[in-house]
């Protein structure tokens, strides 16, 4: 299909993918068969044709709905008809407490990475998905990192369509002459994102006027810049101040732990926002997930006596004199 044969919507999708794939020899596209990912796959095939970029579509069958195997097979056939190599990966979704949406996402991403190896994985998240992500983060009372939403490039996962509305991908599929699959779960209000998509955002658009989704997506872009600045400041602070206990000459009160300790007076003398980011980064480096409540409790150890501590998932932070130490729990940090 020549460039001039594309309609305005499909051309816009294809051009955005082409910009992100510039210089890439091979890429994987996650494709559910829905309008966003189907338009992405067709756009990637178009974008990769001239430079010779090899495109492989991966269809992940979560096996959570009746007939999911049929949907996966039909999507693979459609992609093959359009000249796109496609593979199907069936996964077992195990909810270990993070919720069904997160469990399915984790299983899906693991399957995509397994196929991709070192190649980038393109995902079809749109401006609407970005707006929903920011709104959900606001509802949870999240900080800058969460409000920064979906990054254009997050490790192996790339998102070329974050500036494109969902209506554009639907129209692009129509121009390409393909019929996408519409996931019934996207209309199920039991899922928070579906509720935001079908109810909350339309009500906001109705009450506040058009442009709410674009404004929320713009907030994500702004927060991504702020988050990068704060992450850099936290990393620099840790590089200056965090030390291993064995490097503290003359301080025999601290055991020889493999994890860095933090000087509490220096930490709490910083603005609270930076101190929070330092503690969060310190814990993340050790593989410890922490909430706002956890971080606040760690900082509040400035008011506690020596030996006082805060229990975290799989770890404990303890005040030892003028320093904070992080001790692995029974389920081990390594």
From TrEMBL:
- Enzyme Commission (EC) number: 6.3.4.19
Major location category of this protein? cytoplasm
Please state every residue range assigned to the domain named tRNA(Ile)-lysidine synthase substrate-binding: 262-324
| Every tRNA(Ile)-lysidine/2-thiocytidine synthase N-terminal domain range | 28-198
Name of this protein: tRNA(Ile)-lysidine synthase
Similarity comment: Belongs to the tRNA(Ile)-lysidine synthase family.
The EC category is: ligase
What residues bind ATP, as annotated? Answer: 32-37
| Notes on the domains | The N-terminal region contains the highly conserved SGGXDS motif, predicted to be a P-loop motif involved in ATP binding.
């Amino acid at each position: 299909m020549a460039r001039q044969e594309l309609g305005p919507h499909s051309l816009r999708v294809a051009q955005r993918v082409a910009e992100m794939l510039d210089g890439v020899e091979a890429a994987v596209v996650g494709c559910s068969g829905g309008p966003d990912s189907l338009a992405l796959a067709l756009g990637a095939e178009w974008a990769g044709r001239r430079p010779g970029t090899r495109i492989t579509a991966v269809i992940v069958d979560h096996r959570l709905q009746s007939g999911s195997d049929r949907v996966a097979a039909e999507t693979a056939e459609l992609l093959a008809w359009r000249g796109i190599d496609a593979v199907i990966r069936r996964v077992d979704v195990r909810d270990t407490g993070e919720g069904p949406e997160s469990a399915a996402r984790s299983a899906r991403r693991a399957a995509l990475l397994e196929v991709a190896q070192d190649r980038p994985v393109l995902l079809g998240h749109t401006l609407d998905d970005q707006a929903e992500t920011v709104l959900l983060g606001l509802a949870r009372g999240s900080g800058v990192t969460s409000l920064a939403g979906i990054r254009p490039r997050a490790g192996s996962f790339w998102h070329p369509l974050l500036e494109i509305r969902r209506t554009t991908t639907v129209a692009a599929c129509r121009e390409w002459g393909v019929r996408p699959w519409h996931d019934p779960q996207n209309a199920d209000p039991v899922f928070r994102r579906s509720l935001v998509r079908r109810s909350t955002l339309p009500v906001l658009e109705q009450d506040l006027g058009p442009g709410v989704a674009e404004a929320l997506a713009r907030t994500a872009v702004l927060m991504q810049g702020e988050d990068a600045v704060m992450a850099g400041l936290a990393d620099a602070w840790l590089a200056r101040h965090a030390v291993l206990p064995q490097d503290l000459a003359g301080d025999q009160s601290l055991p020889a732990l493999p994890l860095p300790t933090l000087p509490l007076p220096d930490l709490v003398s910083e603005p609270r926002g930076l101190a929070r980011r330092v503690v969060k980064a310190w814990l993340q480096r050790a593989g410890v997930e922490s909430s706002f409540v956890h971080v606040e409790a760690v900082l509040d150890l400035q008011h506690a006596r020596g030996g006082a501590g805060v229990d975290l998932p799989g770890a404990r932070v303890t005040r030892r004199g003028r320093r904070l130490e992080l001790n692995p729990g029974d389920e081990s940090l390594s």
